[in-house]
């Protein structure tokens, strides 16, 4: 996997993850290309696109487009399932996820993604395990906050 | 601080610059705790990329966190390490990450493995030493860690499959367990056990099994199992199936699996879901090179996809078509591609496609131009074509492809009927083959040599062309192999009358004998442009020779003009100086003289290239694109290349006139059919004609002529004139031996009624024409009688034809004149050919004598039995007409076809009509397959090409030259037979006869 982008129907970027080093300018160009290409797709066409030597797999969930770029010889259907699994994970964590959840808690979305994918490869495919990891770090946060908010006497 | 950082990330993602916060992100990662640290790391990974200088500040933080006792901090550090880490800092943290491979917590181990995978990707040499640790990770008790390690293995095996063959069994076992559902339920995804793991393993297996039969055999079982387990219900199972199919087609093939995989592809292609259709097309593209027939099966779907509104689907279809392009359908496909180019807006696609179009179109069109334009062209056209080919374009890869394509197409042309190609084209072909055929690695130089030798043997090949061919042979010999053919050729031509030819033959012989000189003179793999040939124009290397000659008393060399003057002064005979013999003597001496062979023989061997230098470039990279329209038009008109038979031509023309889409016909279905016909044209009926020369009829007629009884029919004369080639000459040999038979038959003929007691059959058989009497004939069966005439017939099987002989016996006392006899058949083409006495089918029968009619029969349409229906009327007395019929089994038209296993392989793929059936095996023999095949060989005249284990391949041809291939495999006590042929119905008829033959036995 090369990169994962989430953007809204209006073309606003919501989340970006780059698995290979790319310069800033390049990133901007890719984002622009992706949004224009994916948004221009007709409703009843397939979920795969060619872009340079990469395959773009995109899927729309409500108002949000998930767009994943993979190498040419990768399995497209599998990539589609990666997107789906990520949505499931978000859904499980936020409970009926919507675009607003991701806007306001995007760092959480990143954390979930980090538990799910590492360096462009699937790390953990089990929903339960990913959630357990996220929850445990959330617990940590709460205990820290409790700790900090305790009167220091 | 954390909140601020989150906001900075948000600003950045909206496209506002927030570079001031980068340093704070690093600080937060360093100093924060818990979630703050995490946000810090996240911000760093989003803000900075691998080359950013601030990243160095992070190394220390990562080091500290890796050593932390807090699990979550270690996790965070490993995550950020596997996301982005400066390459030159890897050694600093590598020991710590390695240490984590032994961590008690599986999640840490897993992340460590993935971090190492990342390191392997960016700096493979730094993790060389821990390969055995990867093995340990593969055997980890936690499946998650094992899964993670597969990423590394996939990468390593992709780079070097040889090194990991020993692990195949382990991978197969793992896959078996996964497919069998042995993993914890956690790994299930939509109730499919660990799909990612499965796909990863399938991919690894396909790399391992590629071109390796023994390794492939290990995995057949598990592949079969995963095909069966994957029930069609969810996207993820389709993903697994697709990967399975790819794996099956990559590894060493096994027919059962291939069948199942083909079925899967069918399901994909026919699926209404567009994503699956796309994958189906992709799979087809992948497999079509091995099995073009599969594309034929789905041709209608492919045509539909070609008109699909979704450009992506359309493009994938074009990709598929690109793979099945051949000489016959190239114009249609290129047209489709250009059509797509007009609507496509994406630059990258355009570049890619233009390259393909150029590649396909260029060579093919040049082929057409050459074969049509032929010898009428100015010489600089082929020259500039070769120049373009040798200098190439800017891109090395493009050049290679273009040359490869040229080599491929020329090889197939030579396999066809090279006799019809114009001389200049043959020259171009031999140059290209000599220069570039080594690019195609699986092509053996020996086979190329043999093809070239065929060219030499042809009568109409001019001596100039022969020169080119010999030069190509010289270059080919550099490979070292197949010197014997070259030797043989050079011996033939070394005594040629043509001096230039003789020189080439000399060169060839020397190179063939002396490999050292060979490698020095014609170094392999050098680019022409990069090597500078310093041709010594002053011929200084000859100085020694000259001075020796001078010392021996030879006259000093005078330039031609001086000589002319002297001659004029002397008023002697005005002799031209020996323009040709001079360089020859020099070059032969240069070869003998080991000291300085290079410059001169180089210049002769490569004179074609040097010649090109002065030539204007007609087709530059842009140039030919500009001219494309005009040339394409001519090509359109000239599409029928000499390779095709007239009927095919007609078909092709028809489809061409239909394909332009601007005139929609009322029946779009029909149009699609036609488009399909033209697109898949070459796949279905290719090479039926061109694989074997048309030696059959000509040589046969030649025999008749050789008999020399003065009864040469007009038709015979015509054909033998037009088709007089070497096969005729060969054909004349057997006729000589038959002459003795002729005498014997004639002497018998003198007194046919010597022994009236002998059976009628025997008596009639004596009337068999001389050249047929030596061959075995069928029983002579009575057909009918009319008044005093008795008709009987038999058929005689000859190597290249089937002759029907009809005897008309006149038992009356008076001669009967002009008996009209008509033969006709639905399935056969009946051709009357010269009888012994007269050349017309109407002849006289003397009293108590027998008239013999001969017909040569060819199958038009195969059928199990073929029948000839005839009418005869007796002109004497009351006019009376009698009908008769003569039935023959199809087997009488079957002849063995001798070919090699490789040829069989290529032909097998090219044929479209097939049939499969299980036949009974002869079971009482210790070797049932061999016994069964020998029965088939004996009874049906099939040629056994090869028997490999439990499989056998056979070949035969239906007169004339229509091949049929047979593949048999012993399976569950029966013989699974698969027949393929370019002729419809032929496989079905043949399988019927096979069945009969085995039942009777």
TrEMBL record, chain A:
Residues 1-138 form the AP complex mu/sigma subunit domain. It holds the Pfam family Clat_adaptor_s. PROSITE patterns: CLAT_ADAPTOR_S. InterPro entries: AP1_sigma (IPR044733), AP_complex_ssu (IPR016635), AP_mu_sigma_su (IPR022775), Clathrin_sm-chain_CS (IPR000804), Longin-like_dom_sf (IPR011012). The keyword Transmembrane helix does not apply. It is found in: Cytoplasmic vesicle membrane; Golgi apparatus; Membrane, Clathrin-coated pit. Keywords: Coated pit, Cytoplasmic vesicle, Golgi apparatus, Membrane, Protein transport, Transport. This is AP complex subunit sigma. PANTHER family: ADAPTOR COMPLEXES SMALL SUBUNIT FAMILY. The lineage of its organism: Eukaryota, Metazoa, Chordata, Craniata, Vertebrata. Belongs to the adaptor complexes small subunit family. GO terms for biological process: intracellular protein transport. Adaptor protein complex 1 (AP-1) is a heterotetramer composed of two large adaptins (gamma-type subunit AP1G1 and beta-type subunit AP1B1), a medium adaptin (mu-type subunit AP1M1 or AP1M2) and a small adaptin (sigma-type subunit AP1S1 or AP1S2 or AP1S3). It comes from Scophthalmus maximus (Turbot). It comes from the Eukaryota. CDD domains: AP1_sigma. GO terms for cellular component: AP-1 adaptor complex; clathrin-coated pit. GO terms for molecular function: clathrin adaptor activity. It is a peripheral membrane protein.
Automatic annotation (TrEMBL), chain B:
Residues 895-999 form the AP-4 complex subunit epsilon-1 C-terminal domain. Subunit of novel type of clathrin- or non-clathrin-associated protein coat involved in targeting proteins from the trans-Golgi network (TGN) to the endosomal-lysosomal system. This is AP-4 complex subunit epsilon. One of its GO terms (biological process) is intracellular protein transport. Residues 750-761 have a biased composition (Basic and acidic residues). Belongs to the adaptor complexes large subunit family. It comes from the Eukaryota. PANTHER family: ADAPTIN, ALPHA/GAMMA/EPSILON (PTHR22780). Residues 631-673, 692-761 are annotated as: Disordered. It is found in: Endomembrane system. The keyword Transport applies.
């Amino acid at each position: 996997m090369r990169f994962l982008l989430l953007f809204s129907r209006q073309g606003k970027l919501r989340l970006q993850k780059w698995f290979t080093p790319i310069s800033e300018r390049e990133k901007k160009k890719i984002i622009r290309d992706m949004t224009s290409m994916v948004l221009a797709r007709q409703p009843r066409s397939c979920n795969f696109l060619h872009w340079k030597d990469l395959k773009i797999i995109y899927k729309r969930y409500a108002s949000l487009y998930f767009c994943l770029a993979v190498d040419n010889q990768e399995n497209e259907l599998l990539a589609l399932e990666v997107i789906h699994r990520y949505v499931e994970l978000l859904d499980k964590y936020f409970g009926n996820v919507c675009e607003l959840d991701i806007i306001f808690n995007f760092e959480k979305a990143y954390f979930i993604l980090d538990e799910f994918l590492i360096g462009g490869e699937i790390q953990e495919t089990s929903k339960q395990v990913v959630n357990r990891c996220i929850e445990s770090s959330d617990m940590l946060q709460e205990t820290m906050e409790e700790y900090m908010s305790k009167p220091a006497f | 601080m954390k909140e601020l950082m989150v906001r900075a990330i948000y600003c950045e993602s909206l496209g506002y610059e927030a570079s001031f916060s980068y340093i704070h992100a690093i600080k937060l990662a360093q100093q924060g705790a818990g979630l703050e640290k995490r946000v810090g790391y996240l911000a760093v990974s989003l803000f900075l990329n691998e080359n950013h200088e601030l990243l160095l500040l992070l190394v220390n933080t990562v080091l500290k966190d890796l050593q932390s006792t807090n699990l979550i901090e270690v996790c965070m550090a490993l995550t950020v390490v596997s996301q982005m880490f400066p390459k030159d800092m890897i050694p600093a943290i590598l020991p710590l990450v390695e240490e984590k491979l032994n961590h008690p917590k599986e999640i840490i181990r897993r992340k460590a493995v993935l971090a190492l995978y990342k390191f392997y990707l960016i700096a493979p040499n730094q993790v060389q030493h821990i390969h055995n640790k990867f093995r340990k990770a593969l055997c980890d008790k936690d499946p998650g860690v094992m899964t993670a390690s597969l990423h590394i293995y996939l990468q390593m095996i992709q780079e070097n499959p040889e090194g990991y063959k020993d692990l195949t069994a382990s991978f197969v076992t793992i896959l078996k367990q996964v497919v069998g559902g042995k993993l914890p339920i956690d790994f299930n995804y939509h109730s499919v056990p660990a799909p990612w793991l499965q796909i990863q393993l399938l991919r690894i297996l396909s790399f391992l099994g590629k071109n390796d039969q023994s390794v492939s055999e290990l995995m057949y079982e598990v592949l079969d199992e995963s095909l069966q387990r994957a029930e069609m219900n969810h996207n993820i199972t389709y993903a697994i199936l697709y990967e399975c199919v790819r794996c099956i087609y990559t590894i060493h093939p096994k027919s059962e699996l291939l069948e199942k995989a083909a079925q899967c592809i069918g399901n994909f292609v026919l699926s209404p879901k567009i994503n699956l259709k796309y994958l189906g097309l992709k799979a087809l593209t992948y497999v079509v090179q091995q099995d073009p027939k599969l594309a034929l099966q789905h041709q209608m779907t492919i045509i539909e996809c070609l008109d699909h509104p979704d450009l992506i689907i359309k493009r994938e279809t074009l990709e598929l078509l690109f793979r099945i392009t051949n000489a016959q359908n190239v114009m249609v496909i290129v047209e489709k591609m250009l059509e797509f180019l007009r609507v496509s807006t994406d630059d990258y696609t355009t570049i890619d496609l233009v390259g393909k179009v150029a590649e396909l179109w260029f060579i093919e069109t040049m082929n057409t131009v050459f074969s049509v334009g032929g010898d009428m062209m100015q010489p600089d056209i082929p020259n500039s074509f070769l120049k373009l080919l040798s200098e190439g374009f800017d891109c090395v890869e493009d050049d290679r492809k273009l040359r490869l394509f040229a080599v491929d197409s020329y090889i197939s042309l030579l396999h066809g009927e090279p006799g019809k190609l114009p001389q200049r084209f043959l020259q171009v072909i031999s140059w290209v083959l000599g220069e570039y055929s080594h690019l195609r690695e699986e092509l053996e130089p020996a086979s190329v040599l043999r093809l070239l030798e065929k060219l030499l043997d042809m009568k109409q090949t001019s001596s100039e062309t022969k020169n080119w061919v010999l030069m190509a042979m010289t270059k080919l010999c550099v490979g070292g192999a197949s010197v014997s053919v070259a030797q043989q050729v050079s011996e033939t031509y070394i005594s040629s009358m043509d001096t230039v030819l003789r020189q080439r033959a000399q060169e060839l012989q020397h190179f063939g004998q002396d490999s050292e000189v060979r490698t020095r003179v014609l170094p392999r793999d050098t680019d022409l442009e990069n090597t500078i040939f310093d041709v010594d124009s002053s011929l200084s290397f000859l100085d020694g020779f000259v001075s020796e000659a001078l010392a021996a008393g030879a006259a000093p060399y005078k330039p031609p003009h001086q000589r002319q003057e002297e001659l004029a002064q002397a008023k002697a005979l005005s002799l031209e100086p020996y323009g040709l013999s001079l360089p020859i003597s020099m070059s032969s001496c240069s070869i003998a003289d080991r000291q300085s062979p290079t410059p001169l023989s180089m210049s002769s061997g490569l004179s074609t290239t040097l010649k090109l230098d002065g030539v204007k470039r007609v087709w530059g990279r842009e140039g030919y694109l500009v001219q494309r329209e005009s040339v394409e038009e001519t090509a359109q008109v000239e599409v029928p290349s000499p390779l095709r038979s007239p009927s095919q031509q007609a078909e092709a023309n028809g489809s061409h006139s239909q394909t332009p889409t601007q005139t929609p016909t009322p029946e779009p279905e029909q149009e699609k059919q036609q488009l399909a016909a033209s697109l898949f044209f070459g796949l279905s009926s290719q090479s039926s004609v061109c694989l074997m020369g048309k030696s059959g009829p000509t040589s046969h007629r030649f025999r008749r002529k050789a008999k020399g009884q003065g009864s040469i029919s007009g038709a015979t004369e015509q054909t033998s004139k037009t088709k007089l080639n070497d096969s005729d000459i060969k054909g004349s040999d057997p006729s000589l031996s038959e002459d003795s038979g002729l005498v014997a038959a004639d002497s018998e003929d003198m007194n046919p009624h010597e022994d009236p007691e002998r059976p009628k059959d025997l008596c009639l058989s004596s009337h068999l024409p001389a050249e047929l009497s030596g061959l075995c004939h069928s029983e002579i069966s009575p057909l009918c009688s009319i008044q005093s005439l008795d008709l009987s017939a038999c058929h005689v099987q000859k190597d290249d034809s089937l002759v029907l002989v009809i005897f008309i016996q006149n038992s009356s006392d008076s001669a009967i004149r002009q008996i009209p006899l008509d033969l006709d058949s639905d399935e056969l083409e009946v051709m009357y050919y010269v009888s012994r006495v007269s050349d017309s089918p109407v002849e006289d029968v003397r009293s108590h004598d027998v008239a013999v009619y001969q017909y040569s029969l060819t199958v038009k349409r195969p059928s199990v039995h073929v029948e000839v229906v005839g009418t005869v009327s007796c002109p004497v007395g009351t006019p009376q007409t009698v009908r008769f019929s003569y039935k023959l089994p199809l087997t009488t038209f079957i002849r063995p076809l001798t070919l090699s296993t490789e040829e069989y392989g290529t032909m097998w793929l090219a044929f479209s009509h097939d049939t499969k059936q299980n036949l009974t095996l002869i079971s009482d023999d210790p070797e049932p397959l061999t016994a069964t095949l020998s029965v088939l060989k004996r009874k049906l005249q099939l040629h056994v090409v090869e028997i490999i284990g439990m499989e056998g391949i056979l070949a035969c041809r239906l007169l004339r030259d229509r091949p049929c291939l047979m593949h048999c495999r012993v399976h569950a006590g029966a013989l699974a037979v698969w027949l393929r042929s370019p002729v419809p119905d032929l496989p079905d008829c043949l399988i019927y006869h096979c069945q009969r033959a085995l039942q009777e036995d």
